[in-house]
Amino acid sequence: MTTDVETQISEWRQYVQAHPAIVEADVDEMEEHLREQIADLTETGLGEDEAFLIAVKRMGNLDAISHEFAREHSERLWKQLVLLPDESTTGGGRRTELWVALGLGVGAAISARLGIALLDEERAAANAGLLVLPFLAAFFVWKRQVPARVAGGIALGLAVLAVVVNVFPFDEGGSTQVLTVIHAPIVAWFLVGVAYVGGDWTSHRRRMDFVRFTGEWFVYYVLLALGGGVLVGLTVGAFSTLGHDPETVIGEWVIPFGAAGAVLVAAWLVEAKQAVVENIAPVLTRIFTPLSVLMLLAVLGAFVSDGSVLHVDRDLLILMALILVLVLGLLLYAISARDPRSPVDAFDWLQLALVVSAILVDAVVLVAMLSRIAEFGASANKVAALGLNLLLLGNLLRATVLGFGFTGGREPFGAVERWQTTYLPLYAAWAAAVVVVLPPAFGWE
């Protein structure tokens, strides 16, 4: 199907998902039926746009569908916050899914603990992501019933990462080793994404689903970490008053087990309780977007008041790059949380201000980076940072053009969303290049 029809189907799907009585499995079934209707109609000679409209008409009134679902499955609305819903309302799979997630979470925890026990501190830190994320990938391979060929490709990618991290002849503590340690988990996360979308990485809708999952997983993981931190603090306090020192056990066992296991638990929560966090996402984006705009403008003002961007401290440039990455994450999360049917409002203009502010800061950072390279020469750190900032600039520039088009009524919101999903593989490719290409290019230093 053409891109325009895919955009219409995506918007239709998000509209259906907005009804709290309809769960994702039902939406998947309805979308499959809709696509079959469109295919049948196009075979009769109709254009895809016309076929889409007729197919939606045949699907019936969505509000009526939602009402019927709510009447027949009203218990869904009351059980969204219950940890273990009755299996009769979930097709018998939710309980099994939980046990699989818990089992893989225990496996991830054991893997992390063995890594700490068998590897030195630096090597264990380097392998932290690779000790845990394969279990998350396995969870989605199982749940999405990923084809064996795709699952094998994911496993091969993770194995290559493990070889690079542990076999490449890095200078101990050198720049290329640090860059590899930072970027290898990013590549692994994109491989998890391939499993999450069931191997259908070419689908823009499924890529945006993965972006949405990433943001929601982060929210759940932080909540679990905060709750776990409070529990650990209370435990330490209780044992300390009794004259015992539990810090060794907690540092070597509880924290590694909890941090690794929570990766799987958070993923299961996103899958099982999407309606809960989806209500939080718009609130978070509306709180942090204006704050981020103010932060970027303050940073830009600090650069201007300094009078020169040619001799900016290296640590500040690294910090600025991290801030821009966080801004991009906020932008993606905001796009994934927006209802495409909603009219343009003040928040859309605020997001556009965020993007423009980020471009200005990124331009200043790029000038400073290029000046440092011209003065001191290239290094692995500088090339990695320069490449990331150029990627960010390209994304933000196009996002600005589309943003003005959307707010001006010349572009549909689907075009804004589709640009971000189109750009995602470039970040994965750059992270992979930093892991595989830069170390040998700079002599493993």
Automatic annotation (TrEMBL):
Keywords: Membrane, Transmembrane, Transmembrane helix. The chain crosses the membrane at residues 98-118, 124-142, 149-170, 176-197, 218-241, 253-271, 283-304, 316-337, 349-371, 383-404, 424-442. It comes from the Bacteria. The keyword Transmembrane helix applies. The keyword Nucleus does not apply. NCBIfam families: perm_prefix_1. This is DUF4153 domain-containing protein. The lineage of its organism: Bacteria, Bacillati, Actinomycetota, Actinomycetes, Propionibacteriales.
